[in-house]
Task: inverse folding
């Protein structure tokens, strides 16, 4: 933008911004029930691991006060992979708290709910507003965050489906029927913490449970035929010191793949334990 008046020189001077845009940093922790902790940082504060660890300690106290029983039942923290979050000091604090960290793969919006849901809505609300000072801004932001209904926070955690997961599910549905013939059943679990006890800290993940023990697929989940080959491979059906029961389809495959195999034919309801070497 430029301005001038009668008698001004031909070369006009550009308007100079008197005051550069100022930003206030806010750290927010929340869950499906609402806000857990809001911490407005002093202007000029650098968020390093030391500062972040102090904030985590405040978060622990907030959880203790606002979510009774959660600390004992287990906390799963979702934050991105910035250097502050992955620092050794941060890891030591989280280990001391016995909190699990839900891994944050890049480029998956569903695992960045603060960026793509919370802060997007806040940005729209802030648009066009002016505040006299930092204190007025802090109060306004804090009030807005706390005034949002629980449904606002729950919708992105409880209802939204991961687009990547949906695409993979469509691929897996192509082999669901055939896998069932081999005695392999597919189920899906959307609860983020459901797999933590088995070491599942990122999604999407495919696990095949044999007698309660999971085996994790390391190939491409977008390759349904590769998944089926893995699920029906001998490595997957073999259990140590135990004779596996197989379906007719799996039996046919085993006979095709093995020149020598011992088969024990028994009654339908037979469940007596055996010790045999195949």
Result:
């Amino acid at each position: 933008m430029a301005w001038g008046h009668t008698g001004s020189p031909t070369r006009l001077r550009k308007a100079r911004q008197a005051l550069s845009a100022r930003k206030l940093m806010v750290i927010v922790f929340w869950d499906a029930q609402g806000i857990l902790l809001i911490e407005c940082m002093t202007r000029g504060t650098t968020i390093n691991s030391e500062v972040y660890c102090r904030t985590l300690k405040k978060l622990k106290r907030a959880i203790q006060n606002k979510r009774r029983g959660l600390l004992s039942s287990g906390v799963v923290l979702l934050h991105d992979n910035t250097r502050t979050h992955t620092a050794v000091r941060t890891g030591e604090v989280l280990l001391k708290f016995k909190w699990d960290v839900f891994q944050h793969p890049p480029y998956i919006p569903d695992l960045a709910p603060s960026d793509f849901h919370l802060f997007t809505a806040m940005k729209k609300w802030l648009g066009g507003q002016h505040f006299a000072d930092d204190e007025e801004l802090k109060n306004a932001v804090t009030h807005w965050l706390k005034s949002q209904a629980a449904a606002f926070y729950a919708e992105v955690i409880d209802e939204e489906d991961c687009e990547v997961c949906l695409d993979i599910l469509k691929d897996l549905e192509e082999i669901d029927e055939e896998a069932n013939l081999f005695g392999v059943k597919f189920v899906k679990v959307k609860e983020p913490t459901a797999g933590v006890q088995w070491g599942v800290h990122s999604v999407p993940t495919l696990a095949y449970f044999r007698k309660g023990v999971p085996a994790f697929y390391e190939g491409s989940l977008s390759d349904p035929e590769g998944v089926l080959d893995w699920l029906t491979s001998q490595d997957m059906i073999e259990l140590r010191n135990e004779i596996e029961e197989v379906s007719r389809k799996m039996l046919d495959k085993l006979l095709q793949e093995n020149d020598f195999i011992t088969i024990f034919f028994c009654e339908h309801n037979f469940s007596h334990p055996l010790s045999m070497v195949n």
About this structure: Residues 25-155 form a domain with the Nucleotidyltransferase; domain 5 fold (CATH 3.30.420.10). Residues 1-6, 12-21, 272-278 have pLDDT under 50 and may be disordered.
